[in-house]
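[job 4471] stage=fold_predict status=RUNNING
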Amino acid sequence: MSTETELKLSLPQEQIPTLKTLPFWKKFANSAAETFHLGNTYFDTASGTLNQARVALRIREKNGHFFQTLKTQGESVNGLTRRGEWEWPIERPELDIEGLQKVWPESLGALPVRDLIPLFATDFDRTCWQVSWPEPRARVEVALDCGYIRSGDRSCVICELELELLEGDENALHIIADQLAKDIDLEPADKSKAERGFELLRSGT
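[job 4471] inference complete, writing C-alpha cells
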C-alpha cells in the first residue's frame, strides 16, 4: 500500500490556456508537459456499500493498458487529502477479484464480490508537469484534468488541478498552489471524482 497525499483544486475552464503557458513551468518543471487520455470505470454494489465506507474501486485505461485501483477512506481539509491506495496492472477491463482480495482491508468486512457492478465513468485528458520545489524540498506531480463524469445520460464537468506529493515536504503543495493562484483562480476541492460520481448517480434516482 502507498499513501496518497495530494492537494485538489478547481479552476475555471476559460483559464486553462493561461495555466498551460505560465512562466512557472519553465522555471520549476523538470521537462515539458505530458498530455494523455484517461478512462475510468467505478464499481460498487447497487446500494453503494463501498461508498458508504468511503472506499473507491476503479479500472483505469491509459494508452491501451489497464490498471485496477482501490482507494480507502481518507481525510480531506481545504483540498489536501491523505488516503491509502493500491494500484496494479490487469490484462483486461474486468475486475481482478483475486488481486482485490489480497489488498482488501479486514476492517471493511467481507468483500461483496458478487454484488460489484459498474456504476459510472470518468473520461478526461490529463496534462502533467513534474515539479522540483527548492524550499521546502519536494518533488510534486501537477496534473490538470479536463473532461466529464458520466452516469447514464447525466454528466458533469471535470476541470481541476491535482498536486500530488511524490517526495519531500507536503507544505510545498500549498506553496506551489499559492504561486499558481497569483495568475489562476484556484479553489480547494475536497470531493474526489468518485464522490462526485456518486452524487451524480444519486441525482438521477
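[job 4471] summary: The helical segments are 16-20, 23-28, 49-52, 97-103, 171-180, 193-203.
[job 4471] exit 0
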